[in-house]
């Protein structure tokens, strides 16, 4: 079922309830599969909007947050050697990586809204979101990687292929 159909099937009251439910702290739910499905839908919608954005607007002109410069400089200072063109899940998920990412991410608490929300991140920036090319990351990790991809020209191939520019 398409996301739009799912949301439409909820109706106004159901969609409002879903939005309210997603704003509550995770501790309020435990492991409720309905909430997980809503989060997955929200993450998918975010991914779809972002990919459409980099497909239609030259990525080097995009500003994703009010603090893009701070995110980018801190990211590149902390992760100088990280190949952002094609990520390996271990770059974000291994125990060693988590130890490096934690202080980076936590510095944006209260600076970037919902900095630790779950988001979908493409592994290979030249490809679309697919099951094989997508991983789950925090919102600040998404911003850090995608701001860098935009500034360093890695997302240009998506824009050029979708817009017909050469």
TrEMBL record:
Organism from which the protein derives: Solea senegalensis (Senegalese sole)
Phylogenetic classification of the source organism: Eukaryota, Metazoa, Chordata, Craniata, Vertebrata
Cross-referenced PANTHER family: PROTEIN PBDC1
GO CC terms of this entry: cytoplasm
Domain Polysaccharide biosynthesis: from-to ranges: 35-159
Protein's recorded name: Polysaccharide biosynthesis domain-containing protein
One Pfam family this sequence matches: PBDC1
């Amino acid at each position: 079922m398409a996301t739009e159909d799912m949301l439409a099937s909820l109706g106004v009251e159901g969609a409002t309830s879903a939005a309210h439910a997603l704003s509550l702290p995770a501790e309020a739910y435990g492991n409720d599969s309905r909430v997980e499905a809503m989060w997955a839908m929200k993450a998918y919608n975010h991914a779809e909007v972002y990919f459409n954005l980099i497909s239609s607007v030259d990525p080097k002109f995009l500003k994703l947050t009010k603090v893009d410069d701070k995110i980018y400089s801190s990211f590149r200072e902390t992760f100088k050697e990280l190949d952002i063109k094609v990520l390996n899940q271990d770059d974000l998920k291994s125990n060693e990586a988590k130890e490096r990412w934690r202080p980076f991410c936590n510095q944006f608490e209260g600076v970037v809204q919902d900095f630790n929300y779950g988001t979908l991140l493409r592994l290979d920036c030249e490809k679309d979101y697919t099951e094989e090319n997508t991983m789950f990351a925090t919102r600040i990790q998404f911003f850090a990687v995608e701001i860098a991809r935009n500034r360093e020209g890695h997302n240009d191939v998506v824009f050029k292929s979708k817009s017909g520019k050469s």
